[in-house]
Amino acid sequence: xxxxxxxxxxxxxxxxxxxxxxxxxxxxxxxxxxxxxxxxxxxxxxxxxxxxxxxxxxxxxxxxxxxxxxxxxxxxxxxxxxxxxxxxxxxxxxxxxxxxxxxxxxxxxxxxxxxxxxxxxxxxxxxxxxxxxxxxxxxxxxxxxxxxxxxxxxxxxxxxxxxxxxxxxxx
Length: 171
Prior knowledge:
Number of strands: 0
Number of helices: 7
Order of helices and strands: HHHHHHH
Radius of gyration: 17 Å
Mean pLDDT: 90
């Protein structure tokens, strides 16, 4: 996500678009994140929230794939819209999944720790993407890393578990 926050406008201006057009393209993240939060929240209320979280991370993976191989401004906008769909939905879905697996009594500590540590990873991602660009003149390697991490999250969350959650799905 750090790539999109810090480097997307530079990525788009590298395609020959001016900064105003790039900022409009980036604004689609906000719009699609609202849509994604509502849609994924609705789905999670009716189906398995862990699988819904995996699908949300899958959207993020697709977005990075489109940024990496799309090769055009249009595909870059569609890619960042896929990323936007998962942007805020993973926050509430992570809380839901955490409460199911660890219970409400431990949720504050677990959720607080996750979101207390997350900014370190996000800022490291921004730094790595900038370093990659400075060394190669391209964001491709940074996009590959982002795509692999999003795919890893999708698979780790989506792989069926044998252990049952603490709370039943109907609770």
